Amino acid sequence: MKTDRKTIRVSSLSRVEGEGGFFIELRDDGTGDVKVSIHEAPRFFEAFLLGRSHADVPDFTARICGICPVAYQMSSVHAFEKIFGVPVERCIRDLRRLLYCAEWIESHALHIYLLNGPDFYRLESAWASKDYLPLLTKGLGFKKLGNDLLTALGGRSVHPVSVRVGGLTKAPTKKVLTPFLPRLERAYEESLAQILWAASLPFEDHAWETLWVSLVHDEEYPMNEGLMALSSGRTVPMDGFLEAVSEYQVAHSTALHAGLRESQRPEPYLVGPISRLNLNHERLPREILETLQSASVRLPIRNTRMAIVARSVELAYALYEASRIIKDYEAPQRPYTPYEPVRGEAVWVTEAPRGSLLHRYRVDEAGRVENCTIVPPTSQNLAHMEKDLRLFVGRHADRSLDWIRREAEKIIRGYDPCISCAVHVIRPA
Amino acid sequence: MRKARLGVFKFTSCDGCQLSLLNLEEELLAVVDLFDVAYFREATDKPLRGTFDLALVEGSVSTERQKEEILNIRDRARYLIAMGACATSGGLQALRNWASLSAYKARVYPSPENVHALSTSTPVSDHVYVDYELWGCPVTRNALSEVLVSFILEKKPALRGYSVCMECKRHGIPCLLVSQGAPCLGPVTRAGCEALCPALGKPCYGCFGPKDDANVESLLSRFRLMGLRSEECRALLDKMNTYAYRKVQGENRS
Fold first, then answer.
1. How many domains, chain B?
2. Cβ B99–A56 below 8 Å, yes or no?
3. What is the ipTM of this complex?
4. CA closest to A172 among chain B residues
5. Which of A217, A254, A342, B145 has the smallest number of CB atoms closer than 10 Å to its CB?
């Protein structure tokens, strides 16, 4: 009967990238039905990439997301380098990692301080209260540093232009990068203190067993290379990951949902900072781990509300790692390795700020795209977000609708969903 | 004095131009001080209410619903500015204007019948009157501040309509087209990026769209003389500003 049900419908989520909303139906038995919906208009990237030269692809896929263009460029160039067998020099590899650090800094700072932070102070925006100004200023400072570094490496911070298959169009001189060192070191010190701040925020106690997925790497915190690891302990090579996942379309969303084939039904899993931190914390510098310890944060993080803590840890790490790379940097002889395209197919995964971003391409003998698949982090997290919300609704069905709506918005925002990205998914062939 | 009400709206896009607004960083604090940021979904919870003195619109019109929405926003706005390649030229997604929508849908989605989209992606100016167009993929921070400051000072923004070539000359960058025979779109592309790509050793790929009075046809015939096939020339135009370049090319031919 209709009167036994209460519904909450939010048609346009704020402080997230892109257009999405959610719908919650509370039944009188205390259970609820939850749908996160994507209203973002489809853009059909996987269709218009067909027939294009592989050389266009990094600049095209960057346009899927203005917040994490480097991630799209990285997953695509690595996939093509694998197909063509292009060796990439060590210092170019480092420069690309530096570029990724800059994007993590910019994107994480945006989310921590401008999008998610205001939730913990009951503010409608980062500039809604004078009391929040010190945090906003701090956030803008981190963000500017990330953007300045992106600009030094790629010409501009949104859709940088220097990434190409084989390397970079131009490598910066040591002289361009060295002046960043004092700024990075100051920011790193500050970011350690900010981990304590993030850990002190009020979180609903909500520890649960869920599936984490992230790249893992023997020597470093993962960005551009590694194996895909699942929290069950299993690792799979990048090109085996699509077989471990099934994607399905649901009627309320233009994005495909993804689940792990761990059991009979696809099991929702989590990608992003929490999963990365849980599966890779041993690769972090001791100082960051000690800060976490003094903040009484225990690893692994099982409370998905605490994403802002994991993000703050990664912000600190990206600042630390950027300094390290710049200190060791020597400009390469040539910025890229020349290559000849050959026919072939490859999958590559890199760690976008929001989680694992998978690209698969098949190209013809001239290096033109014959087929492509793009699996962004947010579409992988959609099913997990819904599960998280369902558990939440189950626990709090007696609370007021207004309270549930507000909290649900915060839960979704904690995932840093990038809805502009989320629609760009294609079924595995 | 009453603060001017600023609205930031998103249509079909990557969010990069809205982000450029947030990337004003130090100046962002001045923006929120000078303007009443009355609607900006990416940054505040404020619901859509009332009218706007200035509406910044990101994104192209590519669904039935958006055709209605853009009329609604125009109706509420004293000045409407189209911001970025999607809003001024339909964006990269306007590549579907030259293809079959049903084929595109079937290729990307397992259940294409659930996907609602127009067969075209078009600039805001194809739907409503636009007071000013801010080109670029993405727009630059400088151009954004120029527009916002101009609004406060009640003057016309001083943005350039000449080509990227002028910026290369000003920065002393050797011409990639002449010295390396690289297919550079600089001669037909609007300035604004400070010759970003040529400065990094890469030919211009047309982020800022056609400059005033661009002669696209003439540049393409030069490319053909250099040995490029017609479809390669076409592919050079068919990027973020495909709709605008093809339009100009059509005019050049007639």
1. 2
2. no
3. 0.96
4. B200
5. A342
